[in-house]
Amino acid sequence: MTAKSKKSDGRERERATRELEELGLKVMAREWEQVHAEAISKSWSLAYTLCELTGRELTQRRHRKVERLLKEAQLPEGKILSTLDQSKLSVANRQHLAQLIEGEFTRQGVNLLAFGLPGRGKSHYLCAIGHELIINHGQKVLFTPSYKLIQRLLEAKRRLALAAELKKLDQYDAIILDDLGYVQQSREEMEVLFTFFAERYERRSVMISSNLVFSQWEGIFHDPLTAMAAVDRLVHHSVILEFQGESQRTGKKKGNMEKNS
């Protein structure tokens, strides 16, 4: 290669890098020369070389998207599928799990309703599904204790911004509402919760864990008709999950005590 052609080649390399950066293709800008050299050594076609470059760019973008979604989801640390003890699940819940992690239920606006006494693994189960929805399907998930969501909605209502707040929440494919009914709320707080359920009805999924069965929800909503209406909307398109048996937290504590004895 002559000095003139070397100079021209250098300018073209600089231009290619600059223009890829201007297009927002940062991975391609950083790695195209390495891929180009590999393409020459291995006699790749132009189409294959281009696919290698775009594939690297997309992989990095997907990785960044998943990181952003996980941070935004606020899922409790460690409550993922690999740490879920499926041997403690009922046969029905194991079968449901295999289907639910595929993510189709959120596209149909189906709700997941997990019932059982404290410590039975309800929250872990729902959070594990939420984690899978993010990392495998790129869906938007939000985890929140029920009282925090209720306070968020109530504050928005007092600012006359409830509709705007509900619109923000509507961007999530699934919202995990943890420990519904654990703390008794006022009638005004329950009214905004009912509005939330009604707004997402048949469009967006809600994943609820509760230690109160439906027959006890009158105590949550302070009114039998409101409780009935809320249950009707949630159950219409739903998967109901029952968690029974010994408390997993108690079981772990016993196991640790036996280990140390």
Quick description:
The chain has 261 residues and is an alpha/beta fold. The protein contains twelve helices and five strands. α1 packs across α2, α2 packs antiparallel against α3 and α7 packs antiparallel against α8.
Descriptive account of the structure:
The chain is of the alpha/beta class. The chain has 2 domains: 3-71, no CATH class; 74-254, Rossmann fold, CATH 3.40.50. The protein has helices spanning 3-22, 26-42, 46-73, 91-100, 104-107, 122-137, 146-158, 162-169, 187-200, 218-221, 224-236, 248-260; strands at 111-116, 141-145, 174-180, 205-210, 238-243. Helix 9 (187-200) links the parallel strand 3 and strand 4 (205-210). The longest helix has 28 residues, at 46-73. The protein is elongated and about 75 Å long. It starts with a helix and ends with a helix. Residues 253-258 have low confidence and may be disordered.
